[in-house]
Every structure is written in structure tokens, then in C-alpha cells.
Amino acid sequence: LGVIRAAVETGKKVAVFADETRPFLQGSRLTAWELQRDQIPVTLICDNMAGYLMSQGEIDCVIVGADRIAANGDVANKIGTYTVAVLAREHGLPFYVAAPLSTIDLSLPDGGHIPIEERDRSEITHDGKKQLAPEGIAVRNPAFDVTPARLVSAIITERGVVRGDYEKGLKALFEDGA
User: Fold this and answer.
1) Cβ(152)–Cβ(66) below 8 Å
2) What domains can you pick out in the chain, each with its CATH number?
3) Residues with a known catalytic role
4) pTM reported for the whole predicted model
């Protein structure tokens, strides 16, 4: 959220659509709460709604975080991030990743080397103790997906912004004097 706060501090008019971020609702419980606390206009949306808003011209750019960034600029983030990146590309919108240097792992050549955690089935079959899905239903519940670097317009860190040649640019962020 630092990038959004910085934009507001420089006088830019900002309004945010925050995805709910299932299954743990981090967007509802954390992102929307922090933005509202900071008096930044925020509208909470369901995870599957971003494409509709893009098609209606209501979104100017997409900014997401990252849990891990590979040396080539592939980005692992909460499940659904890849889908939003594809939608942004389809609608001609820039797709930015804002993340601290600590998320960049130059030892991983690309996103194919980022381990993707498969979460417990009950996170999507139950609401607390209440069962929502049919008993015995097959479930896939990966916590993250990988967005290919080709869909990323820029990676924004506390040391600077990297565009284009991510391998070279990300490595430069860690060099002395950067």
C-alpha cells in the first residue's frame, strides 16, 4: 500500500478497488481497512469482478503485491493475480508489482521454480464449521499463482522501479550503491 499512499501524498487523485482476496479475505480484512483508515477512497469488490470494471473503463492501472519474485521478473502472489494480469493486458492497462526487496529471490531463475503451496480443502468447502460444498468433492486450493514477467509493466521497490529487462534490473537493485 506504500505506493498508493505515496501517490496520495504527492497530490494524485487516487481511488482503489480492493479485491476481497479469498479464501481468507485479506483484501476485506486488511487492505480495505488500512485504506479507509488512511482516508484513501476504497471500494471493496468480489475477486471475480475486476474484469467487469476494466471493461467499463473504471480502472486505470493495476497494482498488486508479491510474495516472491524470480530473477526473470516472474511474480508469485495470491491466487488470482495471474488472471488479473491477463485481464489488464486484454484491456491495455498497466500492471504494476509493488514489493519490498526481500521478496526478490535471484536464486530462482523463473516462476517455474517458485514452490506453490496447496492449502487445506476446508478453506473453500467450509465457512468455519459449516460445510458449504458437497461431501467428497474434489478440491484444488493453491495459495498462489505465478504471473509471467511479460505481463508485468514494472516492478516497484524501495530501491527503485524496474522495467523491461527484469533479470538485469532486479540484479542491479542489489549491487553496491544502488
Assistant:
1) no
2) 46-173 (3.40.50.10470)
3) 67
4) 0.93
